[in-house]
Amino acid sequence: MGDELDATLDAVGPRLRAIRKQRGATLERLAELTGMSVSTLSRIESGRRRPTLEVLLPLARAYRMSLDELVGAPATADPRIHPRPVNRDGVVWVPLSRDPGGLHAFKQVLPVPAKVPERLDQQVHEGHEWLYVLAGTLRLALGAEDFLLDAGEAAEFDTRVPHALANAGNKPLELLIIFGQQGQRMHVRTS
């Protein structure tokens, strides 16, 4: 373990220099962002000073990277994530993304309705939404139109258009939803 730790710490300085140069930052700018002196940053990058946690945390914040990314630590062997489902009025939401400022991905499970309403209560909000039906039948009310989507079908729309979703089948409806608050859109084309 000691040799592996030494090798990782010895590689941090050159890695920090490469990250800084790749981002076009100067030591002076990095010193402003972190509150460290230019000489301290220079010694760390050149390997003349070993980085400590007190040094790495401000650098990680300045570069907007996790500590693992910053020091180049290998990913954990277990790639699984453990999302926590949320149940709202019988609808299960499973968050699949964590970036608060970017696209949001969810799996949504809607139970079989006791009665399918004739009209759906449509909502309007800023953003853009992309849906993919994993299982079941989706009723998508979009403005004055109603669409039925089965497993394997997808739809995308501007959420400023009145819209509503409902389970139109006789088994639970499972959806993959990707939503961009500022109108970010999914790009599903390969060309």
Please characterize this protein's 3D structure.
The chain is α+β, with helices and mostly antiparallel strands. It folds into 2 domains: 2-71, lambda repressor-like DNA-binding domains (434 Repressor (Amino-terminal Domain), Orthogonal Bundle), CATH 1.10.260.40; 86-180, Jelly Rolls (Sandwich), CATH 2.60.120.10. The chain is 28% helix and 28% strand. It is built from 5 helices and 9 strands. β1 (86-88) and β2 form a beta hairpin. α1 (2-22) packs across α3. It is elongated. The two termini are 47 Å apart. The model has no long low-confidence stretch (mean pLDDT 86).
Distance from N terminus to C terminus (CA atoms, Å) equals 47 Å
What are the secondary-structure elements, in order, as H or E? HHHHHEEEEEEEEE
Radius of gyration: 24 Å
Question: What is the overall pLDDT average?
Answer: 86
The residue ranges in which pLDDT falls below 50 over 5 or more consecutive positions are: none
